[in-house]
Amino acid sequence: MSISDKDWNDWHWQLKNRLHSLEQIEKQLALSPEEQRGLRFASKEKLAFSLTPYFFNLIDPQNPDCPIRRQVIPRVEELVSLPYEMSDPCGEDKDMVAPGLVHRYPDRVLFLVTDRCASYCRYCTRSRIVSGVSGQKLETDDKLAFEYLKNHREVRDVLISGGDPLLLSDSRLERLLRQLREIPHIEIIRIGTRIPIFLPQRITDSLCKMLKAYHPLWLNIHANHPKELTMEVKIALEKLADAGIPLGNQSVLLKGINDDHQIILELVRKLIRCRVRPYYIYQCDLIQGTDHFRVPIKKGLEIMRNLRGFTTGFAVPQYVVDGPGGGGKIPLNPDYVIGYYEDKVLLRNYEGKIYSYPGGQDTKQEENYDRQSGTCM
């Protein structure tokens, strides 16, 4: 099939020509029995299958363990649920204060504006509501959501997510941004999206110009493997950065895809070259049917230990796990503090060498307190 450059670079064409079925994929890939059954059953019961031609083109058709392929082609293992897995592992439904609006943390909210994505990650945290095949629908009501936001002055930060909000038209997205900017106590707007990775053609000059009008605006992308950061993606990310939008990346630690410190090291270095700061690396949530993706936390900590000190400090993401059932993000860090000895803290550096730092135990504040001035010396 011959495709013109004009069509290939048109994000509307990419969406219109997404791959949706087993029959379409079988013409392009020699599928394993696990993938065939995944496309036949899991994509109809758990999470729909949808893949842009651009992202499909990154798959190595000869390698069943291709890191791109593993992320987006359904497998039959998705139909296996373990006792501790959940449909809503982050507990978002219980914190939903208006349709589509989740308020868990004191000063910020999650605003879910759509249940559709350009392509679907098989480990999706919101697979219960994303894509429309699981039986549970995302209910949204902008009027009730904005009424809540106007009445809750403690909210200063709104994260727009979904699904993927950059699937909305420029006019629809701008309407949301404008309404948020009209609420005086909302200081920060963030957008969570995988569109620059799945569909970099969507990052048009007109979109960037529109977004630029609503600063301070932050945008977090989602890349898991260096192979995802193509030249097309780099150009899209540079457009966003040139519009003054700070960019961060959120990765998920995935078995057989990026659970190796050399892969993560290459990923974070490549992100920095694309002007994106590595932000979080997530332990895979306890989503039903995702056990084949999960990496032991112990291994995740080993990966983090092999990043700190071996690359630029701001290129090291924070490893986090979402507390099951709604506990929020919990930081996970290697043990750099060994313990306390007398008045010293014993520390281990990135090379494994031990150092001591004075002041390990609490000292009496009165020793350094100027009683006359009432200030610490």
From TrEMBL:
Supply the alphabetized keyword list.
Answer: 4Fe-4S, Iron, Iron-sulfur, Isomerase, Metal-binding, Pyridoxal phosphate, S-adenosyl-L-methionine
> What cofactor is this protein dependent on?
[4Fe-4S] cluster; pyridoxal 5'-phosphate
So which domain of life are we looking at? Bacteria
The positions making up the signal sequence are none
Q: Where does [4Fe-4S] cluster bind?
A: C117, C121, C124
Q: Which reaction does it catalyse?
A: L-lysine = (3S)-3,6-diaminohexanoate
Q: Does this entry carry the keyword Lyase? A: no
Which GO molecular-function terms appear in the entry? Answer: 4 iron, 4 sulfur cluster binding; L-lysine 2,3-aminomutase activity; metal ion binding
* A Pfam family annotated for this UniProt entry: Radical_SAM
Q: Does the keyword Iron apply?
A: yes
What InterPro entries does this protein's entry cite? Aldolase_TIM, LAM_C_dom, Lys_aminomutase/Glu_NH3_mut, Lysine_aminomutase, rSAM, rSAM_sf
In-chain residues carrying the UniProt-annotated modification N6-(pyridoxal phosphate)lysine: K329
EC class, as a word, reads isomerase
The catalytic activity of this protein is classed by the Enzyme Commission as 5.4.3.2
Instruction: Show where the Radical SAM core domain sits.
Output: 103-315
**NCBIfam families, sorted:** KamA family radical SAM protein (TIGR00238)
Family classification: Belongs to the radical SAM superfamily. KamA family.
Report what the protein is called.
Answer: L-lysine 2,3-aminomutase
